[in-house]
Amino acid sequence: MPLHVSPAPAPALHSVLVALGSPALREAGTPALRSVPGPLSAELPLPVHVLAAPSSDSPSRPEFEPEPRPAPAPGAGPAGAPATRLAGWRFLIREGAATLAAADTLRTAGGWTFSHFFEGPYLTSTERALRQADASGSPWQPRLLSVPDLYMLTLWLHGDPEADPAEGSPAPADVLIPLAPAPPGIAAHRPYRVADLLPRLAVRLAAPPLLGSTA
Question: Which stretches does the entry tag as region Disordered (predicted)?
């Protein structure tokens, strides 16, 4: 497998495994997990990074699923690189070879903790994007990059497979695969170079709200 999937922090994985064995699993809003009789596993951990904005001073919070929030264009990291921050890790929850749901973990002041289970279109879209990346034959390090202000989530293929998955910003030659549903005008599952896609996103993020909008 050309993809270099990085191991998640042990406490993050442990928090998901504990949740899988707890009563919370049967109370989760994920029908597939409530009804499954067999053993479940947490696989394919992906670090979830959030595209930061320069004026953002809010504390770290789970922004894996895009939320409506007005913001300026993305901030810049070292040497003009777009600024991102690690918000959590996501695991695919499987029964055998079948993926049933995903689990999110959060980094808090006390360490890594389980957040929630979920289903939905991003789950199947993530798997499809991972297959696309694997078929490319390139040794990518897969991550997720969330753009909450655009209701957008992408598979971020980082070009340095040995990099610390919790650090770094998207490099111009890295690849982003928008997951479905993608924002209007952005093709889901079309690979984009960071140098091509991020300027388009910056324009959208910097655009003022439409007249009459409540944004």
Answer: 52-81
